[in-house]
Write a structure and sequence with these properties.
The chain has helices spanning 66-77, 93-109, 145-154, 169-178, 192-204, 227-233, 251-261, 310-319, 324-339, and strands at 2-10, 13-21, 25-35, 44-47, 49-54, 56-57, 60-61, 81-86, 121-123, 157-162, 182-185, 209-211, 239-243, 265-268, 280-284, 287-292, 295-297, 355-358, 364-369, 372-373. With 378 residues, the protein is an alpha/beta fold. Helix 4 (169-178) runs parallel beside helix 5 (192-204).
Length: 378
């Protein structure tokens, strides 16, 4: 049994104590009051980060097959991500299916490897609007019954991004929701009324609704045209992703969204192959991109994913004024709740021992995944 001593993230603050772990959290001993800000430089103990939207990292990409999935998973594990969902990008349909097979191969073998937990894949493309591609290649297709059947037969997709206005979207979303897949609205030009009708139909089928990288590839919020953003912020049940890298969303917009969504806002990376490799040329979905000063763009200047990691997203949230315990929820607990992962996302006895310790500057010192210590950190 291992022990971790330091400042433990609690639902309403940070508290000095010790966490006893095996493959799960055995017990917690606390000493002293709960505070907003730790009063000394001891380790900060947080739930392992959960990233439901990550394309790549460390030179690997989810579209590469098993080796690429392992590369990106290992890279993000060493930055505190203990659960992740490898995410596809819009490509020819056969390439998407091949990528999903590769993700499933790694998922089925993960018990024998030191990797983050991979509950499944996020299918970000190709069921999106061809008129709101963002940095996705122009290979969008409709979610026909045959394509949905193929997805369900693989039993690897756990989140799907879909544009409500495309032909067949509602019927496809209902079928996938009944199979337990989270339905995330994104890459869309739908109006608020179309979004609401779609959301109502999915919820009637028992589905859970999210929004993919809020504010990006969906237009903005206006007084007379609430759009997708307005539909999201007005929904008392919806969850929403956000890329908090300082490029995709203004920090004030982040704070506004957090004020509306509270514990239903979850930070994601949308990280790409180039993450961790520094500035220079790279690619996304077969398209040439350039990373300059930590900002990835297509030649047109369109943002092309990010080079963000979850530990940096946490630091950014704290930098703009959120308490560390709140930021910890945005990088772990919120996603666990959205995705139905009831065995993680908090530090409580009986849950998986997915933990990250940070120094006083919030840089990763150590990572445990199901109680196994990840070597070579710090």
């Amino acid at each position: 049994m291992n022990t971790l001593e330091g400042w433990i993230a609690r639902p309403d603050g940070m508290q000095r104590g010790t966490v006893h772990v095996s493959d799960h959290i055995e017990a917690i001993d606390v000493d002293g009051p709960i505070v907003d800000v730790p009063t000394d430089g001891g380790p900060r103990i947080l739930p392992g980060f959960i990233d439901p939207h990550v394309h790549g990292g460390g030179g690997g990409d989810a579209m590469d097959g098993p080796d690429g999935v392992r590369t990106l998973a290992n890279y993000h594990l060493r930055r505190g991500t203990t659960t992740l969902y490898p995410t596809t990008i819009t490509n020819p349909w056969r390439n998407v299916l091949t990528a999903l097979h590769g993700i499933n191969d790694v998922r089925q073998a993960q018990q024998n490897e030191l990797l983050p937990d991979l509950p499944g894949a996020h299918l970000e493309g190709p069921f999106i609007s061809p008129n709101r591609l963002g940095a996705q290649p122009d290979e969008a297709v409709l979610p026909t019954p045959e394509r949905v059947k193929a997805i369900l037969a693989m039993n690897v997709v756990r989140v799907v991004t879909i544009a409500p206005e495309i032909e067949g979207a509602t019927e496809a979303a209902i079928r996938m929701a009944k199979a337990g897949i989270r339905i995330s609205i994104g890459h869309t030009r739908a109006n608020a009324e179309t979004v609401q009708a779609f959301v109502d139909a999915v919820r009637e089928a028992g589905g859970t609704i999210g929004f993919t990288h809020l504010f990006n590839a969906m237009g903005g919020l206006g007084g007379r045209e609430p759009g997708i953003v307005g539909a999201c912020l007005a929904d008392p049940q919806a969850h929403a992703e956000m890329i908090l890298d300082g490029h995709h969303v203004h920090f004030t917009s982040f704070l506004a969204a957090h004020a509306a969504l509270q514990d239903r806002l979850l930070l994601v990376t949308d990280a790409i192959r180039a993450t961790g490799l520094g500035d220079g040329p790279s690619e996304l979905g077969g398209q040439a991109i350039e990373v300059l000063d930590g900002k990835a763009t297509l030649p047109s200047g369109t943002l092309a994913g990010s080079v963000l990691t979850m530990d940096q997203a946490l630091r950014n949230a704290v930098k703009v004024g959120l308490p560390l315990s709140t930021a910890a929820h945005l990088t772990s607990g919120a996603a666990a709740h959205y995705l139905g992962l009831n065995d993680r996302g908090r530090i409580e006895p009986g849950l998986r021992a997915d933990l990250v310790t940070l120094d006083a500057d919030l840089h990763v010192q150590s990572v445990l995944t199901a109680g196994r210590n990840v070597p070579g950190i710090g």
